[in-house]
Automatic annotation (TrEMBL):
PROSITE patterns: AA_TRANSFER_CLASS_5. This is Serine-pyruvate aminotransferase. GO terms for biological process: glycine biosynthetic process, by transamination of glyoxylate. The lineage of its organism: Bacteria, Pseudomonadati, Pseudomonadota, Gammaproteobacteria, Thiohalobacterales. Residues 1-20 are annotated as: Disordered. InterPro entries: Aminotrans_V_dom, Aminotrans_V_PyrdxlP_BS, PyrdxlP-dep_Trfase, PyrdxlP-dep_Trfase_major, PyrdxlP-dep_Trfase_small, SP_NH2Trfase/AEP_transaminase. Keywords: Aminotransferase, Pyridoxal phosphate, Pyruvate, Transferase. Residues 40-337 form the Aminotransferase class V domain. GO terms for molecular function: alanine-glyoxylate transaminase activity; L-serine-pyruvate transaminase activity. It comes from Thiohalobacter thiocyanaticus. Its cofactor is pyridoxal 5'-phosphate. Belongs to the class-V pyridoxal-phosphate-dependent aminotransferase family. Substrate binds at R346. The modification N6-(pyridoxal phosphate)lysine is found at K197.
Amino acid sequence: MTQSFHPPVRTLMGPGPSDVNPRILEAMSRPTIGHLDPMFVQMMDEMKGLLRYAFQTDYDLAMPVSAPGSAGMETCFVNLVEPGDKVIVCQNGVFGGRMKENVERCGATPVMVEDEWGRAVDVHKVEDALKANPDAKILAFVHAETSTGAMSDAKALAELARRHDCLTIVDTVTSLGGCELKVGEWGLDAVYSGTQKCLSCVPGLSPVTFSERALEVVKNRRHKVQSWFLDLNLVLGYWGSGGKRAYHHTAPVNTLYALHEALVLLQEEGIENAWTRHRKHHEALKAGFEAMGLNFVVPEGERLPQLNAVTIPEGVEDAAVRTRLLTEYNLEIGAGLGALAGKVWRVGLMGFACNRTNVLTCLGAMDAVLSDMGAKIDAGRAVEAAMACYRGQD
């Protein structure tokens, strides 16, 4: 007979999901009520305000899509892109490629601006593409590329798009709550994220926010949105303003409790404090990795603090190290994707997992495993280098 499933307690320091705050797990265990219950509707309104804080915007539309970040991405594309449109898509990793796929599935034409994996999107290349394609409707880019740990200049890219009368679609799955993101001030139009990264929440929801300019485009489409489930013209009957809500789908009630609690935690910490915390612990992790002799893929000025891609030492088998970390230390780190598969490890410092204990645990475990495997590293130096960094910060 099949038994109940009891997962091990892991330390999650991969590219996501991240460790979930116990308060969020407790929130999920609260009594389930109906998704049209007046108390639940009240919580929905609170959540929209909390999401505006997280995104740093006053846009009226701020809500979670009832599915993971990939559905948030599709929500932005299927609502804004129509057959025959031209969309400039920036690709500097895996997720820019997924944007291209979305554009094509909407019957539109992607104009690709490609950069080396591990580098930020080149603003000058984007400007050239906008000048060469004055009929482009949208500029799509990834703010925080999860596959490489590169952070692009969302503010500068948005300014370019506005100058050329383009909307922006922006992937903030790994940046929301972890590094500076000011949707309203920067004028980003359609922004999507995920709950399982720097918000420390469980996977399964995708916060999105749309500017009024973007919503006007959605409301005045020539064609029906190709996805019934993700059509904002329908979804807003449930998530829109006002006390009366129209049934659209059965919302994941307890998962939404979890997101509400995650956003309350972010508000309690203060979003700028959260950004500072991610930077602080990244600096210590960086000091440890560099003392060990591991190199970062992304240059200093383009590097995400919450997602660290480091090169695998020569002669070391990627999967063997990750397996030992998991089985011997209950520590999860991530493998490289696409062009970086087998070349890098992706080490996350996200949300609740972004703390001194995890930094030191990760460095100590990696030092021990790599040393035991005979890897060419400077053994025994990583933890002390991280501690020296912390002493310098205190």
